[in-house]
Design brief:
It is built from five helices and no strands. By secondary structure, it is mainly α.
């Protein structure tokens, strides 16, 4: 089942990327990377399906709900907060929720990591790549 979901996601990403100008390897268009990443997901899904098919044991594992819910909530919080509160509060909220996905975290280490990731992300996306996002809201 995970291989099928991964393949469907890859096909969706590739089709979405195909709707944009693809360009070439030396002059990539906006659809180049989604197309390539989508095809990579499909290939990964085929490899996953092949390895699952060749193993004799059948194991059914439960869907890990805690990571799924916390990472999903983190992504949703970033989406909802980026325009109103700015890059740093949205990033810190996202990283805080995502760090709750795994129990028994060392919170001092997590806090330090969250600050480093937020500052690095701001430097990469806003300063270096020029994404028009304010650091602390509009």
């Amino acid at each position: 089942m995970p291989a099928v979901l991964l393949a469907l996601t890859g096909v969706g990403v590739a089709l979405n990327g195909y709707n944009f100008k693809i360009g070439s390897l030396t002059a990539m268009g906006p659809g180049f990377m989604p197309l390539v990443l989508g095809m990579g997901l499909v290939l990964l899904a085929l490899l996953l399906f092949w390895t699952a098919w060749n193993t004799a044991e059948e194991t059914v594992t439960a869907l890990p709900m805690r990571p799924l819910l916390f990472v999903g909530a983190g992504m949703l919080s970033w989406y909802l907060l980026i325009d109103t509160l700015g890059f740093f509060p949205a990033s810190l909220a996202q990283l805080l929720l995502c760090s709750c996905a795994m129990p028994q975290q060392l919170w001092f280490k997590q806090t330090l990591l969250m600050l480093v990731v937020a500052i690095t992300g701001y430097g990469l996306f806003v300063v270096f790549l020029g994404v028009p996002v304010s650091p602390f809201g509009s």
